[in-house]
Write the structure tokens for this entry.
Amino acid sequence: MEIFERFYGDLLTRSAEWELIGLQVFLGVLSIAVLFALFRHEARAIVFGTLLGIGMTIVIYGQFGFTRILGVGSILFWTPTLFYMASLQGTSAVAKTWFGRWLWLAILVMGATLALDYYDLARYLMGERGIIALIASS
């Protein structure tokens, strides 16, 4: 639990306000999957992929600290989850259901999050390997 507390502390102190708002939107939208998971096997798969991504991010944090490589945890598990979510669109089991409507929103939010994770990974691979520090604006 200590590693999660350190990660959460770094997240709050080293992230820009827009990143924290984006994280809240992401968690809010994806948490709805838990409700759908009560009766939709597709939602259970989405919850599973999301939890694996979060767990892997914590593992990577333990090894590398709060660096730009953190996104690899998301990339490894959320990329296949996103493709799975997209593959559900247009199927009769999803079309015109509340789950289907939520799925569009979840695809957009997860896609945006992954785009930022891939961008951070590219920056890491190009040599930006230091601890992420929030730059104070004047």
Q: What stands out?
A: Residues 2-125 form one domain.
